[in-house]
Structure formats: structure tokens, C-alpha cells
Specification:
alpha/beta; 26% strand; binds S-adenosylmethionine
Amino acid sequence: MSKIFFKQFLNDKKMVGSIVPSSKFLCAKMLNNIPLKSAKLIIELGPGTGCFTKKIIEKMGSNTQLIVVELNSDFHQHLKDKIIHSNVHIKQDSANNIGILTKQLGFEKADIIISSLPLANFPPELRNSILKTVSENLTDNGSFVQFQYSLNAYKNLKEIFHSVKLQFTALNFPPAFVYTCKKS
Ligand SMILES: C[S@@+](CC[C@H](N)C(=O)[O-])C[C@H]1O[C@@H](n2cnc3c(N)ncnc32)[C@H](O)[C@@H]1O
């Protein structure tokens, strides 16, 4: 059990969205079908304690830049203490601000956006504005990967992305659906 994760869950259940970090099985489903090696810019939203971040860094190319965006100050500090890598930029910010963070690093758009945000817990306006921002900041051939504990997000994602592919894993607490979305 990750103590920091459980503590942050108790502090803000809706924002953290889960009692424990995601499993290695969910991580594999999130990362296996996207071209992490060739991406110029990857953005991760809602890294928590960094269970996906660690694997993204292992799999990304030597020239890939990674922006990690976490709203929670304790998770942000935990990641800053744990990850020291010249291509990894750990920001305490909201997912809504990825446009600014992308431009600050000298990029127009990201090739891949990987999200653990608990969209189902967000008010519809926030959910829609984050998804719109994600789409606007993704290259035309880019991929957006998001997990959720239900199928509720499917309709929302289909309204914004041309293609939405679904995967499922029972080997996570709770079992999870992985949505891989493309603009074209
Ligand atoms: C379900 S946890 C996922 C953590 C980790 N990626 C995992 O899979 O175990 C969701 C994370 O999203 C973060 N979060 C919630 N709202 C956010 C926002 N608007 N912008 C950035 N991060 C946010 C929470 O603080 C939390 O770390």
C-alpha cells in the first residue's frame, strides 16, 4: 500500500480518484500500443506517485521530452524528489494549462498525451474543457490514452476524437478500461 497515495485520497477523494496506484498490468495496457520511442513530446496528466511516469521514461526515445502535469502539491513534490532527468519536466499545474507548458518548452503540440485524470469525478464543464484542450494540443497523428473505471467517458471521447479504441483489464483495483483516441 502506498502511504502517500492513500493519504492524498483521504484528503481529496474526487481529485485523486483511487485508493491505490494503478497496477503494472494497467500500465502495460496504457503504454504498449503507442510510439513512445519516436515521440518528440509526450505529456502525462495526473501522474500521482509516478507509476506510469517511470515506465514512460524507460520506453521513450533519448530525444523525447516529457512534461508531467500534477495538480496535487504533495504528489508534485514526491515526483520532483524521485525523478531527476534532463528530458523530464515536472510541473505543478492543471491539465487545462498544457498549451502554455507546451509552448514554454518550444513545442507547438504533443505527439502523445497519457492521462490518469479521474474524468468521471469532474463537473461536465471541467471534463469537456480538459478534453478540448487535450485535442487542441495534440498533433494530427497523435494519440491520447486515458483510463477510467467505467465506460461513461466513451460518448464524450467519441464527440471529440475521430477514433476511440477500447481495452479492458481486470488486473487492476478497480478493474479499468483504457481508451486510445486519435484525431484522424
Ligand atoms: C487516479 S490518480 C492516478 C495516479 C497514477 N497515474 C496512477 O495511475 O496510479 C489521478 C491523479 O490525477 C491528479 N489530478 C486530478 N485533477 C487534475 C488536474 N486538473 N490536473 C492535473 N492533475 C490532476 C490527481 O492529483 C491524481 O494524482
